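Continuing the series of single-chain predictions for the mutant panel. This is the parent chain; the variants come on the following pages.
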Amino acid sequence: MIQAKILFIEQEIVNNSKDNWEKLEAVNSIKSLIKQIDLNAEVVPLENVKKVRNLLESLKEDSLTKQEVLIVKELVKF
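Parent structure:
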């Protein structure tokens, strides 16, 4: 589910804003973090921005960038 959502967001960015490389870079960063999650064992809390953000920051071992946070918000509301 989360993988499909991020792909839809990525496609939307590619189709609508070809000059927005920062946002596309943020999507790619989040995609790589999502790939680290064992989706069979881990429940991704897609209804809560803070929980998704905390999960991704834990995987990244650093704070998310502003663009990454915006993508997380899009993931939750999508």
